Amino acid sequence: MVLGxxxxxxxxxxxxxxxxTTHLRPGLLVAGRLPxxxxxxxxxxxxxxxxxxxxxxxxxxxxxxxxxxxSTVAFLLPAIARRRVTVxxxxxxxxxxxxxxxxxxxxxxxxxxxxxxxxxxxxDEVTPDGWLIKGGGAAHTREKVVATAADRFVVIADSSKAxxxxxGPVPVEMLEFGLAATMRLISPVTLRDVPxxxxxxVIGDYQGSIDDPGALAAMLGAAAGxxxxxxxxxxxxADVFVATGDQVEHRVLRSGR
Length: 257
Ligand code: 5RP
What we know:
Layout: E1 10-12, H1 15-23, H2 36-56, E2 64-67, H3 73-82, E3 88-91, H4 94-102, E4 106-107, E5 118-121, E6 125-126, E7 132-133, H5 140-148, E8 153-158, E9 170-174, H6 179-185, E10 189-191, E11 202-206, H7 213-222, E12 226-229, E13 231-232, E14 239-244, E15 247-252
Parallel strand pairs: 2-3, 2-5, 3-4, 5-8, 8-14
Antiparallel strand pairs: 1-15, 6-7, 7-13, 9-11, 9-12, 10-11, 14-15
Helix pairs in contact: 2-3
Ribulose-5-phosphate binds next to helix 5.
């Protein structure tokens, strides 16, 4: 169940960010300067930044931190770096690793670390009761491993990601061995025109309807040849930060493990 944050509060953006968002309102723009879709993209970026900055405040000195992947996480990395805390991080993709290192964050391999204090990541869809779809960036397998190993898994999202129910498609990572048979098993599924995952998996998307996310997750998870899928169950996530306009809503789904 979605609750407000501990005190039922919303996290307010700093004034600087709020005024920047106001400036992007279509009505305040000089006519013809930006097409509508560009305005929406800029608004989404502000929301991603706000959600990321709110979540970065949870990162404390000495923590082991799992870093997700994607354009929302791209705002998280500098926000963590600005906190000037000493943390050890594991990245869920080469691009996150490279960006984090460039900002001076200490990134280690996952080999010797068996748990995280916190992991923070974006999502493609998040429902009020905490079901997620992830994997728009094809990194969902590593992201799920990191989220599962985290005492506190935190999701950061712009308002377009908040949905009443999951609708998909659902990213899947599959072995190349027996690929056609695997795709038949979990039909309807399409292949995505992207490079293999860093672990050699083939990326596709399950295109069927999602009537029961738990049942679909069980079906995809049990299918031989599927490395992992992008449905994350509610019990994985501790907190969700969803930014809408100049407000960031902090949903607390459960306390840390
Ligand atoms: C990558 C992911 C991303 O977290 C998800 O696709 C959201 O991406 P973005 O922050 O760019 O909207 O799951 O595999």
